[in-house]
Amino acid sequence: MSETLEPTLQNVLDQTSLKWIFCGMSYSCCGKGGVGKTTTSCSLAIQLASVRESVLLISTDPAHNLSDAFGQKFSKDATKVNGFDNLYAMEIDPTSAIQEMVEQSDSNGMMGSMMQDLAFAIPGVDEAMSFAEIMKHVKSMEYSVIVFDTAPTGHTLRFLSFPTVLEKALGKLSSLSGRIGPMLNQMTSMMGGQADQTEDMFSKLESMRAVITEVNTQFKDPEKTTFVCVCISEFLSLYETERLVQELTTYEIDTHNIVVNQLLFPKQSSNCEHCRVRQGMQQKYLNEAHELYDEFFHIVQLPLLTEEVRGPAKLKDFSKMLVTPYKPAE
Amino acid sequence: MTLIATIFALVFVTELISWIGKSVLLELAYALYLRVFYSSKRSQQQRLKSEILANKKELMLTSAQDQFARWAKLRRSVDKGLADLEKLNSELSSAKTSFSLKFNTALWILTAGSQFVVGWWYRKAAVFYLPPGWFGPLTWWLSFPFAPAGSVSCGVWQMACRRVIKTGERVVKELMSGKQRILYDRWLHKYPLAIGGSCLLIYCIGSPGPVSVPSGAQEGPVPDKSS
């Protein structure tokens, strides 16, 4: 038990059954502000590309961070990344996905808008739905592994991993359709609407349910999905990571890797006082993290480089550190 | 005589229970029930509670910044304890719901139900016979609905007992709070029926011999009623 798990992401590379990999933090608090999430997910995707058949990297961040990292424009269609044979990337704006759905249902007239109200009355449902849609869409594209750069937020996680609540509601609605459907049909036809609208609406609800259920089964399967937590060696970040780990455990989503990013390793000869103080603090929290997570987690340490990690070549170099632990220069 | 006593006892028990209060009785009985059947669960709950409190106290004393690992571990144990406690509580409360259902049913059968059954079963029996001519036209009402004429029926007897016991309860209460004067007024002006009931009660308890049921008088009217 006391034996420490090796500090690399090799285990992710070796687990060939994996289909979905999430990188990130749960809350917007410090996850957004550059703990190196994108760098980590890009590096992981690069490493995966060397062992798996084809890899897709997805970001749902509206800030286009993938384009930034690779120095190449990506759109919402999967595009091959320059310099790699089997690595693809895409950037999806989740709000636009919702917009599409709304527009689609708007064209259905009265019933459509009613359904939309119904479906979006619960907070997080829309996000969960768009997320599920993305996953469904991507799943049909036949990649051997898919890396999500942006992790779903707490709400979404809850919906995706506890679909029973949503399922119940939707199931009730669809059973209702059997009873009041014909009546509604008559009503609408009497009012001069199209007769098959209600049926359309209920079948849509039914398909929604199917999507969520399927995503859920994938989510809870540790053979298929894993979550890589990314943090920096600071109090708040560690705190959020602990919360994320607890949350994932309650949602029964597998997680056994923590990447600690932006560690400072000043040279012995360096006389930078800031660096020394900061390194001391980082080491303190790193020790705490080791004490807390050593039993069940691979803790990967990544250094803070003196340059920005941008472009395929630099990312490639950086990604090697996920597999072979970084040794600070003497 | 036994019918008189039985009905009185039944009414007395009912009134006693309603005086003590059903909820109080339920609480007492539930506490007993818990002690007998759920003693392990209860002790577990107590232990869990004290454990959580201790852990929480320790958590407050631990600085998250200085000893993060220790702090996080404590928090995990607190969270886990709370979840366990929640589960245990819901288990116990569901046990309580089912128990209170059973207990209330039993109480009902013991009091209102059995009163009803006794009243129905002996609907044609006379509890006791009145001395003829005492109540005039009211005699008919006293044997309402099925008891032989000139007698007191179970239903009326139950009612009389209830009134007497209620009045007695009030007397006791008001005596205890020292308001005899008010009591006296009320007693005279407001409860003629209760007085009647008490008279009957005293009458039949005091002189059971002469009014006891003549043999075979259960059917038909009392012979000397018309004279």
What can be said about this structure in brief?
The complex is a heterodimer of chains A (330) and B (227). Chain A is an alpha/beta fold and 330 residues long.
Task: Walk me through what this model shows.
The complex is a heterodimer of chains A (about 325) and B (about 230). With about 325 residues, chain A is of the alpha/beta class. Chain A has one domain: Rossmann fold (3-Layer(aba) Sandwich). In chain A, about 55% of the residues lie in helices and about 15% in strands. Chain A has helices at about 10-15, 30, 35-50, 65-70, 95-105, 110-120, 125-140, 155-160, 165-190, 195-220, 235-250, 275-295, 310-320, and strands at about 20-25, 55-60, 80, 85-90, 145-150, 225-230, 255-265, 300-305. An 8-stranded mixed beta sheet of chain A has the order 3-4-2-5-1-6-7-8, with helices on both faces. In chain A, helix 5 packs across helix 7 (about 125-140). Mean pLDDT of chain A is about 80; it is low at about 25-30. The longest helix of chain B has about 55 residues, at about 70-120. Chain B has a two-stranded antiparallel ribbon. Chain B folds into 2 domains: about 5-120; about 130-205, no CATH class. Helix content of chain B is about 75%, strand content about 0%. The model of chain B is unreliable at about 210-225 (pLDDT under 50). Chain B is mainly α and about 230 residues long. Chain B has 9 helices and 2 strands; from the N terminus they run ααααβαβαααα. In chain B, helix 1 runs antiparallel to helix 4 (about 70-120). Chain B starts with a helix and ends in a 16-residue tail after the last helix. The interface between A and B is small, with 11 and 10 residues.
